[in-house]
Specification:
Elements lengths: L1 E4 L16 E4 L2 H17 L20 H4 L7 E6 L5 E5 L4 H5 L5 E3 L6 H8 L1 H15 L5 H18 L5 E6 L5 H13 L4 E4 L4 H11 L14
Parallel strand pairs: 3-6, 6-7
Antiparallel strand pairs: 1-2, 3-4, 4-5
Helix pairs in contact: 5-6
């Protein structure tokens, strides 16, 4: 509340005093208003959930050759990250013919017209399942927890039995940009890739990159045609 005090008395000499006004603003009601605003925003603002990303790291356990061959080479895509914001990929496994084929290692790009387009074309079955689950969630037929659980199961199942679901191997170079690694991992989530790993470059990968880019960081003593 605002208060105004006035004093119109006379001084000892009989002269009329000049009116003085004292203004005092009471901010007590603003405390209640602030509490109401805080309460309003607390109820109307959804708390953000921490975003996490699952990364399948290479296992230290010895893997039998029979188990290694369970993943068809036709479904395996290897992405090699360069040192100048560039990325290359190849489909299948390295063979003697791979080193002799100049088109075996293909340059692509980060984002919608590069890695994403390649993986989306190879993962249509899983994407269709996740899209259907998303529609159910938006229609409130399932909860967010059910959506995340069933989407993860669809990605895992697609990686096992779906013929078109790709298996991705990501191989950054020693001096690759950290941002590029994050960009590739983001694409794995966007494209709903169920199986992907971060691995070191093999001598064969270095040989292909050196022949393609001439970057001395990939220089190797690997002889042409050798693994």
């Amino acid at each position: 509340m605002a208060e105004v005090n006035t004093d119109s008395g006379k001084d000892k000499g009989g002269k009329v005093k000049r009116k003085k006004q004292t203004l005092r603003v009471d901010f007590t009601p603003m405390v209640d208003m602030n509490m109401l605003l805080i309460t309003f925003f607390m109820f109307c603002t959804s708390l953000s959930k921490p975003q996490t990303m699952e990364i399948n790291m290479p296992s230290k356990d010895k893997v039998e050759e029979e188990q290694q061959n369970k993943a068809p080479a036709s479904r395996t895509y290897t992405f090699i990250l360069g040192t100048k914001d560039d990325v290359y990929y190849y489909n299948g496994e390295l063979t003697t013919a791979s080193y002799e084929d100049p088109n075996f290692l293909i340059r692509t790009s980060y984002g919608e017209e590069g890695i994403r387009q390649i993986l989306l074309e190879k993962n249509t079955a899983v994407l269709r399942q996740v899209r259907d689950l998303k529609i159910k969630y938006e229609n409130k037929e399932i909860t967010l927890e059910d959506f995340e659980k069933q989407a993860a199961e669809a990605r895992a199942e697609g990686a096992k039995i779906t013929g078109s679901s790709p298996i991705v191997i990501i191989k950054p170079a020693v001096k690759s940009n950290y941002k590029n690694v994050i960009d590739v991992l983001d694409e794995m989530q966007i494209c709903n890739i169920g199986t992907y790993q971060l691995m070191d470059l093999s001598d064969g990968d270095k040989y292909l990159m050196y022949q393609k880019t001439g970057d001395p960081i990939f220089e190797t003593t690997l002889a042409p045609g050798a693994k």
